[in-house]
Amino acid sequence: MANLMLRLPITIRSFSVSASGASSNGSPPVIGGSSGGGPMIVDLPLEKIRRPLMRTRSNDQNKVKELMDSISVIGLQVPIDVIEVDGAYYGFSGCHRFEAHQKLGLPTIRCKIRKGTKETLRHHLR
Fold this sequence. Notes:
This protein is of the alpha/beta class. It has a domain at about 40-125: Conserved hypothetical protein from pyrococcus furiosus pfu- 392566-001, ParB domain (Alpha-Beta Complex). The protein contains three helices and seven strands; from the N terminus they run E-E-E-E-H-E-E-H-E-H. The chain has helices spanning about 60-75, 95-105, 120-125, and strands at about 15, 30, 40-45, 50, 80-85, 90, 110-115. It has a five-stranded mixed beta sheet with strand order 3-7-5-6-4. Helix 1 packs across helix 2.
């Protein structure tokens, strides 16, 4: 029987891992960030996320309850999308997931953060 050795190039991108081993929102630890400037996945405190559309929209409370039950058991599975403009964070998606985290009393939520400009922000507010 012959032995075959396969050599593959290995590329390692920079990343960070939460030292606690688990996030405070029931999700697995954060692994995120790339040096390429793309979106990062991080846990942000709820109070740091501005929700400009919350006053004009209401959530389906049955869906919020279902998400609360799911998050309590398996954690948040899909991060909410957040735009960072000049150091401030704006959330425009994940309204039900955000409210479920609030009602569960969780201090942070998993977010996919993209850098944006004031023009990007104006576009989302239309």
